[in-house]
Write a structure and sequence with these properties.
Structural class: alpha+beta
Oligomer: single chain
Shape: globular
Number of helices: 3
Radius of gyration: 15 Å
Strand content: 15-25%
Order of helices and strands: HEEHEH
Amino acid sequence: MGRMMSVHRGGVELAGVDDQGNVEVRYTGMCTGCTYRPVCSEVTVRPALLQLEGVVSVEIQGGRIDEGNQARLVADLERWRRGNDSGQDSSGKS
């Protein structure tokens, strides 16, 4: 994950972790002002960290997306993934 982000002259760093498995990260470099940060968070950062043993939640510091929009983004990405898995393009057509 870090290698991919460094190509963009940015990164993500650990800001905190607690005994319950809650992880907090923050973006650095060019990633701090990137408009695609919410997408990167949901497609790359959060899923990668949640695959680690013991991690139960991932919070992104300085997020500029409210919970409602984040939920819509996650739902849209999931629909897009299902469409691509079935051989359809992003418009839902085969």
